[in-house]
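For the sake of transparency, this paper describes our internal protein records without simplification. The tokens are whole numbers drawn from a learned vocabulary of local backbone shapes. One such record is reproduced below, unchanged from the form in which we store it.

. . .
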Amino acid sequence: MIPYIHEAESFPSISLSAALDRPVAEQDVLGDLVVASAPVDCSVAEGGPKEWMFADWEEYLRTPQSLHPYAAGPNANAPEIFHLAVRLHPADRDLRRPEWAEIAQRLTRATGLADEHTCRWVALQARPGRLDVIANLIRDDGARARQPYPLVRALVEECRRIEADLGLAPAQPQGGRPLTVRPPAQRPVLPRPVTEQSPPAVAAQLATLMCQLADETHGPIASVRGLVEQAAHRLEELPHSYGPAAGHRLEWIARRLYGIQQDLKAAAADLPAANEHATHAPACLPHRTPRPRAVPGEHSEKAVPLAIADRYLTLQRDVHSGEVLARGGDPEAHSILQRTGFIPVVRVHEHYHRLPTGLDKAEEKRLATRAVARLRTVRYHVACDAAFETERREAHYLPLGASVAHQGERIRQATTTEEGADALTELTAAHDGVLAALDDVLAATIEFHLSLGGPTDIATAGRLRHLSEGHLDVIRADLAAIRADLADRHKPHPQRSVCSAEVGPNEREASAVCGCPPPPLPNTASSPPPTAPAPAGRRR
């Protein structure tokens, strides 16, 4: 019996997919593949554990991270998902299900997962002669599991005892080689069509394959693009005349490959399975529920969840320009980068952030390290250079814009014209309203540029004065008039009412929980047919 400890992960979907060794969908029922698990609370999902789907086991293993986000213990900043795999000798007999369950129980006890405060774990026997144990190292009391040191030695000793007790062939290292060997990487293949699979499951499998192809870290297209970029850089350094021209052509090829990656990601996101389950990621990507905008109060029901891939960023020094660049991330990550000193760069085919020019190496390292610390504080996954690695974390506070965005939430939830007028008052108040404060900021910026004295600074001050007097004053006057009109109407919103949670005696629907009318049907008026294009003539 040969044990192998996989690299720790932050998302159980990665380890579950690796254990199954095939593309999976959220609706896949694991069934008899699960041979043992920690004591399961069946309230996590409907039915017993035998009926749980892939998404149910994923949520079961991910729950401790949500209940105890700041678990204390050794390696508190390390990923929480622990993945252990053992495989038998090819000459070993086929083990029965109770024997696999006994092996799983003994391995969890040997690795410190099943002590007085047990961790959540599940053992899968998805491949012949192999057992995968996946666990969350956060215990039910909120602390991290204390595993024996050295862990590999304790695990190997327990495997030797299991071999002796069950009569299995002992693992004998030969020539000083290690007992475990990482399995070679396999090329992604199309899943076999299965008649029992539903169309969403097939779509999810194909989305998984496309995500694997477009993966920026381990995908085949990313590997080819990296080689092309390296070749372009080598050619540009050649003194001959053909070198820069060939290098330029290769750079364009690399850009086209990047466009193919983006198109594959977009195609995977447009599949029906991705649209029906927008809050879950495909199995090829780590799963984490997208976080809505961090504002006080309730969140809008129309908030669009962000892609799971946007939780990943790269922060590295570019080998060509020498600049420190940050790529990837969602708008919240971009805001953190900008507050740390990065400058956004928006192009037609790319969008990234860079540090300001003219900084010395020490200042660039300080800002990049601080950006990594801030991003990881809010659970972004940052792949950075070794010089920017840090264990430091900074407290994350709501920015000033969150209180302004909260007024939009108040207007969306307003049931009367008075409530809408109250929300607009925060914007249009004469002395300390948001627009008055914005006008003061523009005035201070104008004074700042005028004091610089340069020709371009004076032109910038004039443009800012035009924005303040020609646009901001108009917006403030219009909003003040709209606010006054709402304050004088004193009417309830015709489509919003305060729910009393009471059902009338004449209600036809027995399962209704309130007497509120159904929402209005969307406007289904057909749009006019497109006009036929004019016949094109010959081009010169």
Q: What stands out?
A: The beta strands are 2-5, 34-37, 81-87, 119-127, 130-139, 312-317, 324-328, 343-346, 351-354, 381-384.
